Amino acid sequence: MPDNIFGDRNYFFNFDALSGDENNAKLNHDRYELYVNNQYIGNKTLLNANDKISDVDDYLKAQGYTNFTTSLKGDHYEIEAAADDQSGIQDAISVYVRNR
After folding, report:
1. Number of other residues whose CB lies within 10 A of the CB of residue 40
2. Which run of H or of E encompasses 78?
3. Percent helix, strand and coil across the chain, each rounded to 5?
4. Per-residue pLDDT for 73 more than 80?
5. Closest Cα to residue 67, out of 54, 85, 93?
6. Tell me, which fold does domain 28-99 have in CATH?
7. Residue 34's beta-bridge partner residues?
8. Helices (H), the chain
């Protein structure tokens, strides 16, 4: 008796190929660890296709912070803040990750 309904053969389907949008298909949520001046603050999860990690930058700018740089290294999103803004940016990012 065969192990499955397809007989002795195993079939694998690539559902991304069916959508025609294999480069933008999102099967799992992307998750990034956020750091401010090398201190871990929390995680940012991209929940839908419109979310992007640069949304963090936009949030900080909306909060009035402009003296920072960001870089992505694997799943670590590193924010380098000026010393006088570090505490405020850390607080803002803490709020951001709790509310998103």
Report:
1. 10
2. strand 76-81
3. 25, 30, 45
4. yes
5. 85
6. Ubiquitin-like (UB roll) (3.10.20)
7. 42, 77
8. 15-19, 55-62, 86-99
The residue extents of the domains of the chain are 28-99
Report CA Rg, the chain: 20
**Burial readout 41-63 (b: 16 or more C-beta within 10 A, e: otherwise):** beebebeeeeeeeeebbebbeee
Handedness of CA 23, 24, 27, 29 (dihedral sign): positive
Give, in order, the Cα–Cα distances in Å from 20 to each of 17, 28, 79. Answer: 5, 18, 35
| pLDDT tens digits, one per residue of 6-33 | 555 555 544 544 444 444 444 456 899 9
As given in the structure block, the two tokens for residue 7 are: 């007989």
